[in-house]
Amino acid sequence: MGAKSNPISDSNYRETAYPELPFADPIPPSTKMSYEYAVTTLKSKYGDSLAKAVFSVMFAEASKSGENFNSAGGHNYAGVQTDNSRWGGPKVIIGQYARKDSERMRSFAIFESDATFLDFMASRIEKKR
Length: 129
Fold this sequence. Notes:
Elements: E1 31-34, H1 35-61, E2 63-65, E3 68-71, E4 93-100, E5 105-111, H2 114-128
Antiparallel strand pairs: 1-3, 2-3, 4-5
Helix pairs in contact: 1-2
């Protein structure tokens, strides 16, 4: 799948808590991450308990297709936004893009890979335990 056309450019939408990160234009292409990859990666890095917690949150929040999680772009499977506040944890957000959410324009995080997204999620869930 190719990159989606972005109806706005980085020059006219800059609502962000990460002014140092570039806005991608066009929006990065959507990606899929298999459940198997998510579970295997999470278990190998974080153990069974945290892997189950992260997978549960992703399963409840993410778009799904068959046995895959779907990302709207940038390996962002949970709709992590960059326009309200900064996230703690590992510094794995490498950019951002703007697109219309259900009602208005929002800024969303771009991750380098599925693995760095999972690291981010594990950090967020671990912090809440």
